[in-house]
């Protein structure tokens, strides 16, 4: 798998599609707002943040800094896993404990089924065609309307929202996430080269064709169920997915990236993770967890990331 570098299903207008998408988003002021959230946590300052994402739609996030920070800080923009939201502020104290700011971004339309990680951001731009349950087939017959066009655009705008806060050093913003969050971080780092680094754990939404053919697990299985009911739609579905495939974003990634992969992972098969990693065009490292499933390295990987960023920022 370390040599697995499959051909990428890249449409000819991939760059034009994303350039136009992000230009459309820029028509709306990012309008980042930060409202103090009162919690008896003495070591951190917590703000309930909002900003304008795709279509100007409001996106919610937590913005947390070390208490009383008096200088511009590195900031980790963190994206969440599938079917979860930003959760509660006390879930996100590792980065402030290390001296960083963190912006934890909702995934629009998600978090309604997770009792411990609720979300609060709507998806006003949903498609109109019939969908299988979940997000994977929302608007899947047209890249203009596909769900992840909105999510990835929200995520790009989140970096602008973080940079707008006076406590953040805009030259030291890192994107981070696991599974769906890893896919989002990978996409953002491929779409904009001004982030400092990307922390990409067991990324979802990469090498779609292989993933749906070899795993029986959700969320990829949502696409299989859709195709089993909507016979004859295969070509349109995979054309749409080619605009959102992590392989194509990875090929545009130039910033330092720390990946992780779990070899027992039946949700995001390890070959699909290595396919993205092997296409990453910038400096990169990957941590392999041979006996783990989709939980990957969990806390062990967080420790690895803390050391990685300390060395990265020390190097300038």
UniProtKB/TrEMBL annotation:
<feature type="domain" description="Acetyl xylan esterase">
    <location>
        <begin position="2"/>
        <end position="311"/>
    </location>
</feature>
<dbReference type="InterPro" id="IPR008391">
    <property type="entry name" value="AXE1_dom"/>
</dbReference>
<dbReference type="InterPro" id="IPR029058">
    <property type="entry name" value="AB_hydrolase_fold"/>
</dbReference>
<dbReference type="InterPro" id="IPR039069">
    <property type="entry name" value="CE7"/>
</dbReference>
<dbReference type="GO" id="GO:0052689">
    <property type="term" value="F:carboxylic ester hydrolase activity"/>
</dbReference>
<feature type="binding site">
    <location>
        <position position="82"/>
    </location>
    <ligand>
        <name>substrate</name>
    </ligand>
</feature>
<dbReference type="GO" id="GO:0005976">
    <property type="term" value="P:polysaccharide metabolic process"/>
</dbReference>
<dbReference type="Pfam" id="PF05448">
    <property type="entry name" value="AXE1"/>
</dbReference>
<protein>
    <submittedName>
        <fullName>Cephalosporin-C deacetylase</fullName>
    </submittedName>
</protein>
<feature type="active site" description="Charge relay system">
    <location>
        <position position="265"/>
    </location>
</feature>
<feature type="active site" description="Nucleophile">
    <location>
        <position position="179"/>
    </location>
</feature>
<feature type="active site" description="Charge relay system">
    <location>
        <position position="294"/>
    </location>
</feature>
